[in-house]
């Protein structure tokens, strides 16, 4: 399929460029962000209870290191399933509609999460317990692979052009808020119940809550409307001309490269700064676990705020300058944070919160990525490039940084700063700044 001369514009065509967000826009944004928060919570809550799950779903006589390896392997299976789920959901999202797949992704996350909370343990059904757990984790991975690109596109295609960056940033903040929600639930559970109670039954509460709220989110998404851009595609019968992935691989390899490199930046920022740093602080600087988790929670809050800010700033200053400021700031504040460790409690929280705010510039990935593809293959293109890159870089980054730390304790700073520099350089890539442009006849 050749590139369409009359492809839909990068953002919502339904309203004037300068109109403010209206009540319907806020409803769309709110329901989308809430669903994303709950879905990402369902995906990450597993890691907060990995130790308990390992003891319950594997033989008691199994060596501790082997049990931990098996549990982390099941956790990693969710990441490996992301590209498959993302490609399939995106394919039908470009053919059948954004709304249907947007709702399906939440359903595919909610049901397995609820089932995990109800699963019998190894003591009850033997080897079937970890097999069922693995199957549920694969379904979760498939769901999250379709949710994030689907959510970004759904909101972007509804938002007025001049509020495009803010809308995507606000949605991304809701998704990252799922990490914070999982952390808060973990803290609450550990402060409310004894370790024996958590081991016996209380560990199930976060999964059951996540599953139930996820199903509520499925119901709430029925009140969303199909995007104006997809309706226009349907009217022109452009959505079913050719297999979308075939078009992507032939005509939009540059856009895939842009999204893949920006996903490398995003995955590094999230994995290294947010997910790995608490254990890094404890292991290398002997910071108390409670203090490390407290600082991490504050950084997650500033990350969430930063997602909104950098999206909003891209509306005001343009994509190029915002990328330079956001990712240049991430490179600088990474050194500010890591070079001042361990510091005092106040300095730890302050510098961690600062780098967290600049990590919020990860919301620029969907700002750029949605516009990098024409509307008729946008869902497939963004989902394919994002999920394939995340499976590679999200999986390799923890191992790379862990090995590098053996030689240089500042490895996380160097790696995050390098990604910041890459983001600044990408600001001068025309496709990243201007988006896909229809070829003139």
UniProtKB/TrEMBL annotation:
Keyword Transport attributed: yes
InterPro entries given in the database record: H+-coupled_symporters (IPR051084), MFS (IPR011701), MFS_dom (IPR020846), MFS_trans_sf (IPR036259)
Localization annotation: Cell membrane
SUPFAM superfamilies: MFS general substrate transporter
Keywords in alphabetical order: Cell membrane, Membrane, Symport, Transmembrane, Transmembrane helix, Transport
GO molecular function annotations of the record: symporter activity
GO-annotated cellular components: plasma membrane
Membrane-related topology note: Multi-pass membrane protein
Record keyword Nucleotide-binding present: no
Pfam families on file: MFS_1 (PF07690)
Domain spans labelled Major facilitator superfamily (MFS) profile: 28-435
Domain of life: Bacteria
Record-annotated membrane-spanning stretches: 40-58, 70-90, 102-125, 166-189, 201-220, 255-275, 295-314, 321-340, 346-367, 379-401, 413-432
Protein name: MFS transporter
Species in which this protein is naturally found: Comamonas suwonensis
High-level lineage: Bacteria, Pseudomonadati, Pseudomonadota, Betaproteobacteria, Burkholderiales
């Amino acid at each position: 399929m050749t590139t369409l001369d009359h492809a839909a514009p990068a953002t919502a065509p339904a309203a004037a460029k300068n109109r403010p967000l209206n009540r319907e826009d806020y409803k769309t944004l709110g329901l989308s962000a809430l669903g994303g928060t709950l879905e990402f919570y369902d995906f990450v809550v597993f890691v907060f209870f990995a130790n308990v799950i390992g003891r319950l779903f594997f033989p008691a006589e199994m060596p501790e290191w082997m049990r931990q390896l098996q549990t982390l392997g099941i956790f990693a299976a969710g990441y490996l399933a992301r590209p498959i789920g993302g490609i399939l959901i995106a394919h039908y999202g470009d053919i059948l509609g954004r709304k249907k797949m947007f709702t399906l992704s939440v359903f595919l996350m909610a049901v397995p999460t609820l089932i995990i909370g109800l699963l019998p343990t190894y003591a009850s059904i033997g080897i079937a317990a970890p097999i069922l757990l693995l199957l549920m984790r694969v379904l979760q991975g498939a769901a999250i692979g379709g949710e994030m690109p689907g959510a970004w596109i759904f909101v972007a295609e509804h938002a007025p052009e001049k509020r495009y960056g803010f809308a995507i940033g606000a949605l991304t903040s809701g998704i990252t808020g799922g990490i914070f929600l999982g952390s808060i639930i973990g803290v609450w559970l550990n402060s409310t119940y004894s370790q024996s109670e958590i081991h016996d039954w209380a560990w199930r509460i976060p999964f059951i809550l996540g599953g139930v709220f996820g199903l509520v989110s499925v119901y709430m998404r029925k009140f969303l409307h199909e995007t104006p851009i997809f309706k226009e595609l349907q009217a022109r019968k452009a959505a079913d001309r050719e297999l979308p992935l075939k078009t992507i691989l032939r005509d939009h390899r540059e856009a895939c490269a842009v999204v893949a490199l920006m996903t490398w930046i995003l995955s590094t920022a999230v994995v290294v700064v947010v997910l790995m740093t608490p254990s890094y602080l404890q292991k290398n600087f002997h910071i108390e676990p409670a203090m490390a988790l407290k600082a991490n929670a504050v950084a997650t809050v500033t990350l969430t705020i930063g997602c909104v800010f950098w999206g909003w700033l891209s509306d005001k200053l343009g994509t190029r300058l915002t990328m330079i400021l956001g990712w240049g700031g991430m490179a600088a504040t990474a050194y500010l944070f890591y070079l001042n460790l361990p510091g005092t409690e106040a300095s730890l929280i302050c510098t961690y919160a600062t780098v967290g705010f600049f990590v919020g510039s990860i919301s620029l990935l969907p700002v750029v990525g949605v516009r990098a593809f024409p509307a008729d293959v946008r869902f497939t293109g963004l989902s394919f490039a994002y999920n394939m890159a995340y499976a590679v870089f999200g999986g390799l980054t923890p191992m790379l940084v862990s090995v590098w730390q053996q030689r240089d304790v500042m490895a996380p700073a160097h790696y995050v700063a390098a990604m910041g520099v890459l983001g600044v350089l990408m600001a001068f890539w025309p496709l990243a700044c201007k988006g896909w442009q229809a070829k003139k006849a």
